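Summary of Year 1 activities. Much of the first year was spent building the evaluation harness for sequence design. The harness presents a backbone, in tokenized form, and records the residue chosen at every position. We chose the following record to illustrate the format because it has been used consistently in internal testing since the harness was completed.
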């Protein structure tokens, strides 16, 4: 089982209630979600299963304003200031392809083996970067200049750097619209 995840201030907690195999080996974690110690699981989603690979799941944004829930099929963001629940990514059977996520100053980066989805946390605009044909994304790196690199598994399951995409500030025009 994965350990309980919570925000730094403990306002939001995600507690593992067990695991389940829905069908054909599709493993999921059943979770309960608490906001200020009140169970809000059903308000977040009646399908309270998160993707099975949670070792690279980052719950809380750097600013502490958002919490990300990799709910299978429909990931969610919770605005921790307003309690607004925002459905951000619809991806059927996401447990098969979910790799992890992380935050930058103004965005959420969701990494799946077949695509990377970057969501601006101010206006929720999304940019989707599909994997190269036949490639499986292992992770994403962002350098100091803001260049995004997709890291792929190669034929021998080692990581290799294969594709440069674009500068993050070009994706959302951070320099002019949101500040760097």
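For this record, the design step produced the sequence shown next.
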């Amino acid at each position: 089982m994965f350990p309980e995840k919570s925000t730094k201030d403990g306002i939001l907690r995600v507690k593992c209630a067990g695991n389940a195999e829905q069908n054909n080996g599709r493993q999921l974690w059943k979770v309960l979600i608490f906001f200020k110690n009140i169970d809000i699981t059903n308000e977040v989603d009646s399908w309270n299963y998160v993707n099975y690979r949670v070792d690279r799941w980052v719950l809380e944004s750097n600013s502490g304003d958002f919490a990300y829930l990799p709910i299978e099929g429909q990931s969610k963001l919770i605005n921790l200031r307003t309690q607004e629940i925002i459905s951000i990514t619809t991806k059927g059977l996401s447990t098969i392809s979910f790799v992890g996520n992380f935050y930058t100053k103004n965005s959420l980066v969701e990494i799946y083996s077949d695509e990377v989805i970057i969501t601006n946390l101010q206006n929720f605009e999304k940019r989707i970067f599909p994997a190269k044909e036949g490639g499986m994304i292992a992770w994403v790196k962002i350098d100091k200049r803001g260049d995004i690199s997709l890291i792929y598994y190669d034929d021998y399951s080692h990581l290799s750097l294969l594709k440069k995409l674009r500068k993050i500030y070009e994706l959302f025009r951070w320099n002019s619209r949101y500040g760097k």
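The longest helix spans residues 168-172. Quantitative recovery figures across the full test set are reported in Table 2.
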